[in-house]
Design goal:
The complex is a heterotetramer, with two copies of chain A (340 residues) and two copies of chain B (393 residues). With 340 residues, chain A is α+β, with helices and mostly antiparallel strands. Chain A is built from eleven helices and eight strands. In chain A, helix 4 packs across helix 7, helix 7 packs parallel to helix 9 and helix 7 runs antiparallel to helix 10. The termini of chain A are far apart. The chains are: A alpha+beta (340), B alpha+beta (393).
Chain lengths: 340, 393, 340, 393
């Protein structure tokens, strides 16, 4: 049992706190809308090795575990960095797990190309609204019972969306089959779980930061001659949100650990963490916005940037309702259709 | 008890519905420029006499006409406008400001401001909030200094929504800094084309455009003053009662739920099943519908109280609190059941229903802020409805 | 449009405010547990004519509408009166609507006997957990496609239940068929709607009263040198509950009116009112209990009496989930099973 | 990070599970007499050395034994007791009071109170709250007046749970009324068989029995005092840290959810379909399960912090707030899905699962009150975790 960052992880954290604070300030985040991608920032991030850090060294990666990647993801989430870090890193790991030949894998990992995974199976030869699909040249997706890899140029354009997420429909023409049947299902399930756990990490970090914006605002803003933050109703609203964010952070950490440790409950924990963290982040964003008064709603304040992106993190894999039902199948067994 | 509107009001409802069916087009509903107001619709309603119809009869000068709609009819009008999702912010502010002017203003203001407002020729904008005073509106710092029979105004207002379309702003100013804050305020109507006024857009997450307005040595005659010098707070409080005739915001969820049902009837989940058949979806749609019926109860009660001549301050606050908070929740529920497709916005080809549900979701949060935050409203309910002491807040 | 009590209704209210305040104080309510029935109070109430007031005069009733009965129900709810007023009154109306012969109807209505309706259809010849089933001699219930009337002696004993409600399973041996098929379905649907609307009225009244207990308590109780009711978080919790209770009251009133006026939306409004009013009353009871501190949980304080009974009002017709689904069938149409 | 307990703690978990499987019977779980304590179970745990095992090793006198379990093992014990729904209120108070006495008490108290408590021979009860001071515990008015080397105690305590089974009460008294309230308090251990003490039951909605205890000229020697005269507040604050070893209440929902799943797997709805197959039910069960996993994260974090020697005041408060508030909500959800059958109580033949879910529902509300109300806890989180100013409350 060890529930603090290791010295190595703290060192990674120090580097990326500075990196994202400097390289992904709100001006950069705003300028990257509506696509939600900043090619220059991505190039800088790629130069740090972060996007491939969680690939084995044997295939040119950093040899780090998900926990170390999660440290980077937290900072990207905190600053809303417009880069597809999670999608790319998970797609690389999936390609590697699916025994993609080393040459192709290295080409994806080492160049400025971007990979992404589709969270939902393809329908009619198209992967729908793939996260990072607008900027990824390589898409991994379940097509029928096959795990396939499609390489086509990124459209570099996303349909207008509230989360300013670089999502896009992606046709799969000429895709290459990486795995089939049970193996494909197992691989995509694991990759989805990794996406869930890291996105949970990211959402919790967004929630923590948007809550901090609220705390800072109510400490500074006075109404009726006193700081807004001295009103008990404001304090209690922020306190409830912060308790959920703390719980969310711990759940995301546990999901990441369980994946790294190949614990049997890992995939379930990841799906749970995704739902809870996104929900907690939404509540934090809503509380922060409310206690900003009208300013929370103004485009020039940052709280609305978080409010919209957090919703995207929740909805990208499907409706929360469908996520709860999928979890129920795992936790309670499938619907039997029987009677007692 | 009888919750049915009287026959004349139901007849008027039919007239309003026919009018809206004929005059609300997709272009009317498109508020992507951020202004929740449509001149064409507004002027057609004015031509029908519906703006002056909303003003208390005893205030209407004979030459203006109107005043021939009672408060139950106006409640019907407001309900139908909301159910249709019509962009009618302009109607509310026009009627409220005109009523204030007709009750408390001088003949110059009645002629210059109230007439054109009620004829639908011009709009007005509320200039109460400032950067440093939102909920604490009495802390306004915009200064009006007397200079003979003129006033010189300096300061800044925030959230002067519609100012960029309006001819007038009703401006709360500080005329005496030596007395308690409520006692040093004076209200003016200020023509927005006066020299020294600058209007800057404030864009919001909900796409609505609001404004910051700046007043730099704006010089106006004393005839633009409404109410007593240092009596601005009394004018504000008097103005509150005119919201009774034009109270909006009781049915924000109704068009949202309509859209949700349409979406769920035409969209399948990953297993190919219509969303409308999903029990978890059905429960949420029903819950939203029940909340809307609760809003209807509140709306009818406040309309009836107003028609009885009762002032309904706390009832109006409760209506607003419930309607806006439940709307915000419904918007979350409904966007959520759409999955990633719900994120798509007006302008994206695949955006369901033209992105209208996503627009509701972005719009909803401001409704628990403007017109009194939910926090301020709960204070009012605690004190005025439950009789609790003034909070230690 | 007329949204205040009529002078006649106000007169009824005055009478029953006094009646229930005097005759159903908390000592009587407590003494009636666990059965939840006080025969003496019922006899006194019967003497006022209230239980049969909403039957036509032609069959010995008071000729009142549901709105007048609702005025009495409100006071019974406010004081938690341990009498099956709603069940009996609705059962009489149902029996009359089903053309029960006048002699039998008069016998039920005029003697000290008690009638009740089962809210769920009988299963295997037994009506399960009938509200007031423990004290009713006459049960009306849907059995298959028949509306039947069963006359058997009341068990005068209820299984231990949290709501202290006189509910009981009732076998239907020798029941008499009052109506069949579509007519039976229509009659029972109407009777259920009347039960929903009046129980909504009762629940809202319970909620209003339990909230008032909370307001009284926090005005009197001091901690940290000030009234508990001066803390903003306490005020906001009570304010939110009171807004819901006001909304609930209006919805219940509208449902009662719609039934009296035979409006097409009447049955739906009644079901909606039942769910919303019970929910609002639960929230009021929960807020009141929380702001009572430990005392809210103590048996000697009245708030727990409300807390438990309100849950009974919500659950008697079935789970709220099943109630929402039934409403969905009415409001959205049945599940089609189809795809677009 | 590593969320796995170390091997020795997991081995201990196995031992605890075997112990509980062998020793928890339906009779153990039956707390219908209102006392959430089972002497047989308690003494068997004491015999295992688990009570003294929970006391910090450096405090344990050599003749007592114990102290050989570390804080991670104790966290495992508490988790397993809660998951099993074992009635273990006595364990918590015994360990906490014994630890206080061993740290701050004199030799007389160590021998007379701590030893018997840790050997499982006697119980103790907390005597902090009074009728007029609950959240505001420092306002205690029970008086202790010095009389030579004795003290004479007069007053009343409220919520002295377990007092009717206990040998001692740890009593917060006022010894100086002339100073600010926190500075005039003194703490005593008081034997509950002392003349002048009366214990009256306080029955609660949740069936638990608590007590009011009355002190009428209760005379005890100065050797029963713990800490300094007028230093009672420091003793209370010192006592807080011992809750770290025995912190309970993180998993109240776990046995409830187990019961709910059992119920749903064996019960059909009106259409004959198993409840466990109902999507609305499935979603709620999953939501409850997620909340329990969140509680587990909090519980493990606080256990780890304690094992590291960190004081975890605000983390413990957050855990308690989340666990109790979510438990109350889960109890509503789960009782609701049962319909009218959910109302049936222990004692009714047809009561599902012996009425255990209904018992949870009645028990849950007190968990957001005792040990610090949710309101007080939110104040703490706002001030200590978010750094907000002391509230205007």
């Amino acid at each position: 049992m060890q529930l603090a960052l290791t010295p190595d992880e703290r060192a990674v954290q120090d580097v990326f706190v500075a990196f994202f604070t400097n390289e992904s300030p709100p001006e950069i985040v705003r300028a990257a809308e509506p696509l939600g991608f900043d090619a220059e920032l991505w190039a800088k991030l790629a130069a740090t090795g972060a996007p491939s850090m969680a690939l084995p060294e044997s295939v040119g990666g950093g040899g780090a575990d998900l926990a170390a990647l999660a440290v980077v993801v937290e900072e990207a989430g905190r600053t809303l960095a417009p880069v597809p870090l999670i999608e790319h890193a998970i797609a690389l790991r999936l390609a590697h797990a699916a025994d993609l030949d080393a040459t192709t894998l290295a080409a994806i990992a080492s160049s400025n190309r971007i990979a992404a995974i589709a969270l939902r199976p393809a329908v009619g030869g198209t992967a729908g609204l793939v996260p990072a699909g607008a900027v990824a040249d390589v898409i991994l997706v379940l097509d029928g019972t096959d795990l396939v890899l499609a390489e086509v140029p990124a459209p570099a354009h996303a349909p207008a969306n509230t989360a300013a997420a670089p999502l896009a429909d992606r046709p799969l023409g000429g895709a290459k089959v990486l795995a089939t049947g049970a193996k494909a299902a197992r691989l995509i399930a694991r990759a989805r779980a990794e996406w869930f756990a890291l996105t949970a990490t990211e959402a919790a970090a967004m929630g923590r930061q948007v809550l901090q914006l609220g705390v800072d605002y109510v400490m500074e803003r006075t109404q009726f001659g006193v700081p807004v933050g001295s009103f008990q109703a404001v304090q209690h609203g922020l306190a409830d949100a912060s308790v959920r964010i703390e719980g969310a952070t711990l759940l995301a950490q546990r999901a990441v650990w369980a994946l790294d440790a190949d614990r049997p409950e890992a995939n379930e924990l990841a799906a749970m963490a995704h739902l809870f963290c996104c929900d907690a982040a939404q509540q934090a964003a809503a509380a922060s916005m409310q206690f900003h008064g009208g300013y929370g709603y103004a485009e020039e304040y940052d709280v609305q940037l978080y409010y919209r992106r957090v919703k995207g993190r929740m909805l990208l894999p499907g409706s929360p309702g469908s996520q709860y039902q999928a979890l129920a199948d795992d936790l309670l067994g499938p619907v039997s259709g029987g009677a007692s | 008890m009888d919750f049915a509107f009287p026959p004349h009001a139901e007849a008027f409802r039919t007239e309003v519905r026919e009018f809206l069916a004929a005059n609300i087009t997709p272009e009317t509903l498109d508020v992507s420029d951020g202004t929740i107001h449509d001149w064409d619709l507004h002027q057609k309603m004015a031509a029908k006499g519906w703006l002056s119809g909303a003003v208390p009869e005893e205030l209407i000068p004979p030459d203006l006409g109107g005043g021939d709609r009672d408060l139950l009819e106006m409640a019907v009008l407001i309900e139908e406008l909301q159910l249709a999702g019509a962009p009618a912010d302009g109607l509310g502010v026009a009627v409220c400001v005109a009523s204030m002017v007709l009750e408390l203003g001088n003949d110059f203001l009645k002629e210059t401001v109230a007439g054109p407002l009620l004829r639908g020729e011009v709009l007005a904008s509320f200039g109460y909030s400032e950067p440093e005073s939102g909920s604490d509106v009495a802390a306004a710092q915009t200064k009006a200094a007397r200079d003979g029979d003129h006033w010189v105004i300096n300061g800044q207002k925030m959230w002067t929504t519609l100012a960029h379309e309006a001819a007038f702003v009703i401006l709360l100013t500080r005329t005496n800094a030596e007395v308690p804050k409520h006692k040093g305020l004076t209200m003016f109507l200020v023509p927005l084309d006066a020299p020294g006024i600058e209007i800057q857009p404030v864009w919001t997450m909900g796409t609505e455009r609001s404004n910051a307005t700046f007043y730099d040595d704006v010089r106006i005659g004393d005839e633009w003053r409404i109410g007593e010098v240092d009596g601005g707070w009394a004018v504000m409080k008097a103005a509150l009662k005119y919201e009774r005739g034009i109270a909006g915001g009781q049915f924000p969820s109704a068009p949202l739920l309509d859209a949700a049902i349409t979406y769920c009837r035409t969209t399948t989940d990953a297993d190919g099943r219509l969303l409308i058949d999903d029990p978890t979806v059905r429960e949420q749609l029903v819950r939203a519908r029940i909340d809307i019926e609760v809003c209807r109860g509140f709306a009818y009660k406040t309309a009836w109280m107003a028609a009885q001549g009762d002032f309904f301050g706390v009832e109006g606050s409760m209506t607003k609190l419930f309607a806006s908070e439940s709307y915000k929740q419904h918007a979350h529920w409904i966007l959520d059941l759409m999955g990633p497709e719900g994120l798509l916005q007006h302008g994206a080809d695949a955006a369901p229903l033209g992105g209208s549900i996503e627009e509701h979701w972005r719009h909803a949060p401001v409704t628990t802020i403007y017109g009194g935050t939910s926090q301020i409203t709960r204070n009012l309910v605690a004190e005025q409805h439950l009789g609790l002491p003034r909070a230690r807040r």
